[in-house]
Amino acid sequence: MDLNNQEISQAEQKRRDYRKQQRKRSVWISLASTLAFAAIVWFGLLATPGWDRVEQSFFNWDVAVEAFPRVIDGLLLNLRVLVAAAILVLFFGLLLAVIGTLKAPVFFPLRVLAKGYVDLFRGLPLIIVLYLVGFGIPGLRLEFLGRIPAEVLGIAALTITYSAYVSEVFRAGIESVHSSQRLAARSLGLSYSQSMRLVVLPQAVRKVVPPLMNDFIALQKDVGLISVLGAIDAVRGAQIEVAKFANFTPYVLAGLLFVLLAIPTIRLADRISARFSSREQQGVSL
Amino acid sequence: MIDWNSPRLKVVGLKKFYGERQVINGVDLEVFPGQIVALIGSSGSGKSTLLRCVNQIEDLTDGQIFLDGEEVSAPGVDQDRIRAQIGLVFQSFNLFGHLSILNNITLALRHVKKMDKDKAKSLAMSWLSRIGLGDRGDSYPDKISGGQQQRAAIIRAVAMEPKVLLLDEVTSALDPELVGEVLDLIRELKSGGTTILMATHELSFAREVADWVIFLEQGQIYEQGEAVDFFENPKLPRTIEFLSRMRSR
Ligand SMILES: Nc1ncnc2c1ncn2[C@@H]1O[C@H](COP(=O)(O)OP(=O)(O)OP(=O)(O)O)[C@@H](O)[C@H]1O
Ligand SMILES: [Mg+2]
């Protein structure tokens, strides 16, 4: 429906003019207040007694340029770990969630196991899982595995922890699908697994895209923790450069790169959530 | 054209408990090919539970169910195969929200009946055109009216060519002006010879299309009879009370 091409009444014209004026005013106000705020922060910082030293050791341009190649190399490793972990997490998270829905008595032990797993790893700090996996598995001295690269152990640890979170998200999604959808599917003769795969899961997954995106953003940060296992990722790369120059700028650089990496995902997540909620309730935003 | 030779659906001594609560209390009934049987009764009398038990999406506590003479409640019978032969349509939320109307209809044709994609599609299209929804195949359920949704849900079940169609108050969640189009579809199915067992609150409709009426009271058949006779000469006190209560609404 295109209202713009329609004749509009004088009353509507007046309303539109007024709104336009209001919009212009609010743009100016927000611009001015932003500038004022930035100025206060900036001069406030510059006025602190230690600022010169901090600037030297955290925001040193030359050091940043020198450290850049190694940090960016490390970031590529983080990215690879992220992609691998994300795919594995989706798979195992969904698997755990589906196991949780199996009501038949045969599956009782499996279901209890899955529940216990989720409880355990939702509670256990990721860093401890990283240490246990990273130093425990090599400690088993499984010769046939050879020497496992630190990033692989990191992927394993991230997958173990995040699958627990994500399975809870999927479980909530599955439960939010109206029970008569499942009954309708079964009454058409679809088997349990068919109705799960063709009817329940597609609807559940759609509903949980926004919370899944949040977990993905968290994972995107947490891939930086694989550095504790000695993988030369962005954080570890920065650490090496920090030691070399006795200057903290590489950490700032690595942090900045992580943020830059996260921003598109965060924006995407916002947009997806907005689209989902607008589809659920159409109306004016107040 | 009811075929009185042998019942299409036969329910014997059906009982259903939810925990201690006895919801179906020993029900026997028969539905013959081409026959339309209406289940009426006050809210909570067990109509929905009975239909769900017949379809066995609800486990029976006791009793037997026969479909064309085969005991489908016997242990070891593949329930998915049987459910594909018994259509069931609920009050609401029947259609799959993530699928277009067309794909709602083709889903079971393809995955249960293993029909190939094109054949399922053309079958679905021909059903949709018959009910005047030929141009809505690509729409999603939330984009069509409640009456259209219910009609699509009914033909989704009918397209599977079930031996018996179970309808559970398919009009009671609809706005009054949409009820008529759904009832029209059921009339059409009757003239096509579909065997139907339906729970309904639409008494005048039950009287018009049903051949047999069963009045359910606290999980038991309290009174039953030929539709016209049942409504004109109810014999037992609770039936009389129920009918007058429904009429005065
Ligand atoms: N899953 C369940 N667990 C426990 N009790 C149930 C369950 N489903 C139904 N009941 C009970 O069984 C009784 C019969 O319910 P049912 O839905 O079959 O009635 P109905 O005749 O279809 O009623 P209505 O006209 O309101 O649809 C009700 O008292 C209800 O509370
Ligand atoms: Mg009911």
TrEMBL record, chain A:
SUPFAM superfamilies assigned: MetI-like (SSF161098)
Transmembrane segments: 26-45, 79-99, 120-140, 251-269
Segments forming domain ABC transmembrane type-1: 75-269
Keyword tRNA processing: no
Membrane topology label: Multi-pass membrane protein
Pfam families for this protein: BPD_transp_1 (PF00528)
Gene Ontology CC: one annotated term: ATP-binding cassette (ABC) transporter complex
Gene Ontology terms, MF aspect: transmembrane transporter activity
PROSITE patterns linked to this entry: ABC_TM1 (PS50928)
Record's keyword annotation contains Cell membrane: yes
GO biological process: amino acid transport
Cellular compartment(s): Cell membrane
Full protein name: Unannotated protein
UniProt source species: freshwater metagenome
UniProtKB/TrEMBL annotation, chain B:
GO CC terms: plasma membrane
SMART domains, per database record: AAA
GO terms assigned for molecular function: ABC-type amino acid transporter activity; ATP binding; ATP hydrolysis activity
Compartments where found: Cell membrane
Membrane recorded as keyword: yes
Membrane topology, from the record: Peripheral membrane protein
Gene3D superfamilies, alphabetized: P-loop containing nucleotide triphosphate hydrolases (3.40.50.300)
Keywords, in A-Z order: Amino-acid transport, ATP-binding, Cell membrane, Membrane, Nucleotide-binding, Transport
Keyword DNA-binding among record annotations: no
Domain ABC transporter: 9-243
InterPro entries per record: AAA+_ATPase (IPR003593), ABC_ATPase_HisP-typ (IPR030679), ABC_transporter-like_ATP-bd (IPR003439), ABC_transporter-like_CS (IPR017871), MetN_ABC_transporter-like (IPR050086), P-loop_NTPase (IPR027417)
Similarity remark: Belongs to the ABC transporter superfamily.
PANTHER family reported for this sequence: AMINO ACID IMPORT ATP-BINDING PROTEIN, GLUTAMATE_ASPARTATE IMPORT ATP-BINDING PROTEIN GLTL
Stated name of the protein: Unannotated protein
Annotated organism of origin: freshwater metagenome
